[in-house]
């Protein structure tokens, strides 16, 4: 029963994390305009994302432009693109593997094999969480370094956008959910450890029985 609860909770967290990874990947708010110094009062706000850049006017109008060239992007954006897509794909693969080995499904009959399959799904989710965590931390570090760079003009400085915070939440859910799925693999939790019985002695029917079998 505890294994089923761990699997259900871990799967719910991982699915939520995978959905948040996809949301963060599509949002353009990875880098946003920093309102500092003489840049406090502006007529527009700039959003920089993995796939497009958007300009939001003070009137509420928004214009977005897709990045024309992948090679022209910064190295952190290129890496973030690749790893977030890998993380999203691993999330789908992990869901398929975990469902195949879950206690509530009959795709696999052997309990020991099901436990290993669920463990494999948990490992895939952990790798998915690490894949999205690496570009998030890298990009956040670059934003902070550029923000405190005195040689960079205020109009070029950016702040951490909402997409990065969503990505951090997704990574935490994936890592924690994957850990729960791996914990359900323990034989003590699953209760699949075989019970060993002492060998029994058999008495053969014979006209001359050994005396040790008499009480």
Automatic annotation (TrEMBL):
Functional description taken from the UniProt entry: Claudins function as major constituents of the tight junction complexes that regulate the permeability of epithelia.
Cell compartments where the protein resides: Cell junction, Tight junction; Cell membrane
Cited PANTHER family: CLAUDIN
Main location: other
InterPro entries with a match to the protein in the record: Claudin, Claudin_CS, PMP22/EMP/MP20/Claudin
Topology within the bilayer: Multi-pass membrane protein
Short name of one Pfam family: PMP22_Claudin
Annotated PROSITE patterns: CLAUDIN
Molecular-function annotations in GO: structural molecule activity
Signal peptide segment: none
Transmembrane segments: 7-30, 82-105, 117-144, 164-189
Family to which this protein belongs: Belongs to the claudin family.
Protein name: Claudin
GO CC entries: bicellular tight junction; plasma membrane
Keywords attached to this entry: Cell junction, Cell membrane, Membrane, Tight junction, Transmembrane, Transmembrane helix
Keyword Nuclease: no
